[in-house]
Amino acid sequence: MTGRAKSTVGRVDLIGGGPGPIDLLTLRAWRLLTRAEVVVMDRLGPTDIRDHVGPDVEIIDVGKLPGHHPVPQDEINELLVDRARAGKRVVRLKGGDPFVFGRGGEEVAACLAAGVPVDVVPGISSAVAVPQAAGIPITHRGVAGAVHIMNGPSEVTEATLAALRDDSVTTVILMGVGALPRIVSDALHAGVPADRPVAIVERGHHRDQRTTRSTLGSVVVDAGLAGVRNPAVIVVGEVARAGLLLPDPQLAGDIVL
Ligand code: SAH
């Protein structure tokens, strides 16, 4: 043995971490996480991983706060490629699902371009799981038969307006707290009814989860009164109506303003 560093390339696995609790990881994600030599993690998804990996595992937090990116995406890509080239088994732990507004595609492309073996393990997306945690099915027979998922900071497109106008479509907004006033104003100007139900679910699947119920016409004021903050998933549509599943929404601990 010459003591030379391993010359074989390692690998990168992008794993979906789900909405936060570690037991919402898939078994495949768990297996990869517990065998990783390097874990590159985010602000959302499971954050309490130190206890679940060996003491020698390098944990790198590249967590992003809204509007503030401590580690730029190209540096994250570089980090993944460099560690894998050094022969490491790298797990890129991402909140929710890596391919739902997670920039997972960019990380996969960077690994492929560098010739680094890469794979993706799907995760439970907050787009589905956070409404669910508040008792909101994003589809419901006879109520909503289609779902439109949008990224709050993006432009409100015709496709989004069409979804918002259609009372059989659920619109799910991620990263939407800051953009809510603009989205609501665009929607109301485009003729979306002001009484369209809205639910804002903060910190879904965490102990301090909170749901604020309102309507399109009142949600900006109500969100302000409730002091709604990120991370939150905003659901617009009939499925967000209080009492859809539970006759008494107060039982679910909701704020109904
Ligand atoms: N890839 C992720 C989404 C990343 S975008 C996924 O599939 O879930 C980040 C946004 O996800 C946040 O701004 C928020 O809208 C949402 N989000 C993620 N986890 C959340 C949680 N536990 N509670 C509420 N919103 C959450």
TrEMBL record:
The keyword Transferase applies. One of its GO terms (molecular function) is uroporphyrin-III C-methyltransferase activity. Residues 14-218 form the Tetrapyrrole methylase domain. It is an enzyme of class 2 (transferase). One of its GO terms (biological process) is siroheme biosynthetic process. InterPro entries: 4pyrrol_Mease (IPR000878), 4pyrrol_Methylase_sf (IPR035996), 4pyrrole_Mease_sub1 (IPR014777), 4pyrrole_Mease_sub2 (IPR014776), CobA/CysG_C (IPR006366), Siro_Cobalamin_biosynth (IPR050161). It comes from the Bacteria. The keyword Methyltransferase applies. NCBIfam families: cobA_cysG_Cterm, PRK06136.1. This is uroporphyrinogen-III C-methyltransferase. It comes from Microbacterium trichothecenolyticum (Aureobacterium trichothecenolyticum). The lineage of its organism: Bacteria, Bacillati, Actinomycetota, Actinomycetes, Micrococcales.
